[in-house]
Amino acid sequence: MRPRDENKELLIRQKAMEIIVKHGLDGFSISKLAKAANVSPATIYIYYKDKDDLITKLCLEVAWQMINCSLKDFSPEMDFDIGLRIQWQNRMQYFINFPTEMEFIEIMRYTNYYEEVSRALTTNFGSVLGPFMENSIQKKQLISLPFEVYWSVAFAPLYQLIKYHYQGSSHVNSTFKLDDKMMMQTLELVLKALKP
């Protein structure tokens, strides 16, 4: 059996994401990936059992990268407005620095491959964001809400701005670019909606 080559494995993962983002899951195959990565299909099978194994591992890898970036310099003990601001800044930075990963995970979110990612997110994000919400409620910095309502109000506005940013336009603006000022303006409105 041939030894693993970390650079080759990284290239395979990157090309897999690019193909899925450009052509969707229906347009993805091991032979297409091998051609794009300039390797033989047998080389891909050194690293992955099959196509499903590759996609599942890729989903998990991107999700962990996103989680780690989102929680950088964050603590559940922080005051609510500071903690939410850090998460927004981290998420915006992640999406700007890793646009292919962002598009890839958005595509995967609506597939069966995302089930394992959902379990990991629930366990790991929940163990950090649950205490953050509870501490914020106890400090009377956040109104008590079901998690899903909180999440929708807290992060959907940011994700919509990021989508406009990647599209380069919004419904009324043919040239849209997200900047810190606009992000902070939106965050202030979100904080106002979530605070008692």
TrEMBL record:
Transmembrane segments: none annotated. Gene3D superfamilies: Tetracycline Repressor, domain 2. Pfam families: TetR_N. Residues 29-48 bind DNA. InterPro entries: Homeodomain-like_sf, HTH-type_Tx_Regulator, HTH_TetR. Keywords: DNA-binding. Residues 6-66 form the HTH tetR-type domain. SUPFAM superfamilies: Homeodomain-like. PANTHER family: ACREF/ENVCD OPERON REPRESSOR-RELATED, ACREF_ENVCD OPERON REPRESSOR-RELATED. This is TetR/AcrR family transcriptional regulator. It comes from Mucilaginibacter sabulilitoris. The lineage of its organism: Bacteria, Pseudomonadati, Bacteroidota, Sphingobacteriia, Sphingobacteriales.
